[in-house]
Design brief:
It is a single chain. The chain is of the alpha/beta class. The chain contains two helices and six strands; from the N terminus they run βαββββαβ. It has helices at residues 21-31, 83-97, and strands spanning 5-11, 36-40, 51-55, 67-69, 71-75, 104-106.
């Protein structure tokens, strides 16, 4: 049995959403359920994830003001239509490199 990637999901507050964030998340979760274990991200838990998905409803990128461990994908109103493909590429690269790499990204340093 193939190891599943541990994916943390964090939603913005939804104050100015241009797309249905929950619908995007549900679609992503359903498509990759056999390859990923999805959990809502809670910074207070101190838990690390292989991939963290930051779902911003607009382009303000308010979720980039925190510290995340592991690789992450920023989803916003400019890329949500292609973000599933971007997630798939990120997952593929993670499977090639190995899971549980502890790279830390803070603030605007989110390019992987």
């Amino acid at each position: 049995m193939q190891q599943k990637a541990k994916v943390g999901v964090l939603f913005c507050g939804g104050c100015n959403s241009y797309f249905d964030r929950w619908e995007f998340y549900s679609s992503l979760k359903n498509k990759f359920a056999d390859k990923c274990e999805f959990q809502l991200y809670n910074a207070d838990d101190g838990e690390s994830f292989d991939i963290t998905v930051l779902i911003n409803g607009c382009q303000s990128e308010c979720l980039l003001d925190a510290k995340y461990v592991g690789k992450f994908l920023l989803v916003d109103s400019s890329n949500y239509t292609i973000a599933t493909g971007q997630f798939e590429e990120l997952l593929f690269s993670l499977q090639k490199e190995g899971y549980h790499e502890q790279t830390i990204f803070t603030g605007k340093n989110w390019n992987t």
